[in-house]
Amino acid sequence: MPTEATTLDLDLARQVLAAQPFARLVGTELTEFGDGAATLVIDIQPEHGQQFGFVHGGVLAYAADNALTFAAGTVLGPNVLTGGFTITYLRPAQGERLRVHATVLGATRRQAVTHCDVYAETDGEEPVLCAVAQGTTRRVEKDLAPSAEEDADGFDDADLDDDDFDDQDDYDTDQLAVVTIDGPVLPPTVSH
Questions:
Q1: Distance (Å, rounded) from C-alpha 21 to C-alpha 24?
Q2: Where is this region: Disordered (predicted)?
């Protein structure tokens, strides 16, 4: 895996994507990468669906998250992690493939804010904008390459501490409100 000093190009970025087991499972392809932008393409498969036959929102969120982070990697380098993102679903996704294009809106040396559009495409038809997302990606100073000492999930959580995440916000938990409920807690209801 690349180190912080490594500059990512399309070929190396594709290697990073190929190293993600979930990306391989979903069938993600990186088609564009560089100059503050990245595009991912996923051929829609029946396994990507939800109960109504549309692409599951989790697949759309995964694609947005990954595209946002890859776009940020073009300006921050390879050791980046998602700090957070929001996604808004505009309409159901269906068709032959998803095309997710992300661009960096602004960046510092340590973080980038990115935007992406998620389109469902079918050959011969206009692409349909299904979702939009925006997120923050942070450069991590620690080398994220796997090592022999890691636990079974491939990541040694014990080796990470707050110093590994630049500009991490510190919150005093005494300032957070605690909500308690008196009486029985009822399960959520579904209206029809």
A1: 5
A2: 140-192
Give backbone dihedrals phi and psi of 173, rounded to 5 degrees, phi first: -65, -20
The pLDDT tens digits of the residues spanning 135-163 come to 999 999 876 665 544 444 444 444 444 55
Domain boundaries, the chain: 10-139
How far apart are the C-alpha atoms of 169 and 165, rounded to whole Å?
9
Q: Rounded mean pLDDT of the chain?
A: 81
pLDDT of residue 186 exceeding 90, the answer is no
Q: Which CATH class is domain 10-139?
A: alpha beta
What pTM was estimated for this model as a whole? 0.72
Which residues lie closer than 8 Å to 132 by C-beta, 6 or more apart? 87, 88, 90, 115, 116, 117, 118
